[in-house]
Amino acid sequence: MKVRSWAEPFKIKMVESLRMTTPDERELAIAAAGFNTFLLRSADVYIDLLTDSGTSAMSDRQWAGMMMGDEAYAGSANYYNLERVVHRVYGYKHLIPTHQGRGAEHILSRLLIKPGDVVPGNMYFTTTRAHQELAGGRFVDVIVDAAHDPRDESPFKGNIDLVKLQQLIAQVGASKIPYVCVQCCVNMAGGQPISMQNIAATHALCHRHGIKVMLDATRAVENAYFIKVREPGFSHRSIEEILLELCSYSDGCTNSAKKDCLVNMGGFLCLNDDALAEEARNMVVLFEGLHTYGGLAGRDMEAIAIGITESVQFEHLRARVGQVEYLGRLLEAGGVPIVKPIGGHGIFIDAARFLPHLTREQLPAQALAAAIYVESGVRTMERGLVSAGRDPDTGLNHTPKLELVRLTIPRRVYTQAHMDVTAESLIALHDEPERVVGLRFEHEPKCLRFFQATFAPVEGSVVLKHPDFSGKSVQPIAPDQPCTLL
Ligand code: F0G
Q1: What is residue 25's predicted lDDT score, i.e. its pLDDT?
Q2: Could you tell me the pLDDT band of residue 468, with boundaries at 50, 70 and 90?
Q3: Domain harbouring 362, CATH code
Q4: Torsion of CA 45, 304, 295, 101, to 10 degrees
Q5: 232 and 204 together in one domain
Q6: Ligand 1 mutation target, pool 52, 108, 187, 188, most atoms within 8 A of CB
Q7: CA dist list (Å): 180 to 119, 177, 210, 238, 485
Q8: CA distance 88 to 94
């Protein structure tokens, strides 16, 4: 049978111009940003693959919904629309809107975690773990070992290792575990999904011990897609049916609507327990806003409600994940080492293998992200030692096995041609890895350091040597001197 291609199930109505810069301009910009792609100005970025968070293009229906914002302080009609859609699609009883995912994480952590508690999860996520620690808890990773191996091609590398979880329960006691945090399409592992069979078994084990299961449903819709296409027995079921079943194996969820739900801002907490929901509503008033808006405008809630209904369309998901796979296949064909299998929201480059001449202390993923920017204008993000932070008890660096650079694909924003030029520049860089210079910390913030840290090259002043290796050095501009490229 001949291969038939998929195509985006939309056409483009409005465009936003991109600005291409020269390598010299980018060298100055990245030096001014302390070699941290988070500190670049987006005006200096050509193709922005920093994150899929809040970067989606909204549909005409969502924009129309924005005009229907009911900006009442209390009881906005849009809240009730959102509540109805969340109930129908995710299935939870109580909806508490928050300004974004971490707002929901904050409330959930404060609500359930006591000092000394242990929160197991399928690999950490930066903000999630930070809130668990802030509430006095300790995160313990119980993901399957395969998740830590970029070359392992298992289809569900987001699965919980039930033996590890059981051993942890035996070791610390169920009373010390307020809930197990189950993330869908595990971000730091490369967007790797959890299988239905595994979450069902996790739920059964937890409930035998009276432990709750809380879903990080941020990428649950994309996880449902992977269950449909990868897990035996699910191909004939709709995304909506799969998602409802997936969520049914949990007692509630936190959700950053900035991803799957196709909006630029928003999030929510869901709970099935009436008493807990009552407590959470008390808390949301304090930290986010009244329980019927949680830090969001009415129009934002309407856009989320419509975005959710669009997010569960199979054709949308096929094109979204298809685009990520398209980029991954190009990179693979060009010899670039990437995390396999290709996940839902981005391509994760194995920086340790890409830059074998750098030691771990030379922060290969941070250096590679900075070098990719200089080479191509494409903005990516470090997901390795820098993101992992320090152990709050010992103060020592966490040393995750994975040292990755993430190329995260915004939903419905870029075209296949953008993927082509991205892949071409990465492949060119991969052919001359010795051009990339390692980095060291210059300034290390205490909390979630990767966002605002600054770095310096371990030798010279540039992160990417010129192709002729002459080492032409550019004076980094002084930190107090703004970088004006416009
Ligand atoms: N959980 C997961 C799995 C996430 O990926 C994120 C955000 C959050 C929670 C927090 O949500 O940003 O709305 O507060 N991830 C973004 C990223 C920042 O780039 O991966 P938020």
Answers
A1: 97
A2: low
A3: 3.90.1150.10
A4: -70
A5: yes
A6: 187
A7: 6, 7, 11, 27, 47
A8: 12
